[in-house]
């Protein structure tokens, strides 16, 4: 799973996490610089998300991923 995370986040410009622990894991596991990882604790601060002042060029690619990365522990397996 760590290799998948490293590959997935290799070209990320910024990442947002929901807790400081999640930020720490995101910085340590794939090796993202801490200044590229932001924390919004379990809520969305809508003041941080505004439309771009100018329309993006057609050459820009913006990918937004909303997901939950959780470790599942099975007992007795």
From TrEMBL:
SUPFAM superfamilies hit by this protein: UDP-Glycosyltransferase/glycogen phosphorylase
Record protein name field: Uncharacterized protein
Organism: Datura stramonium
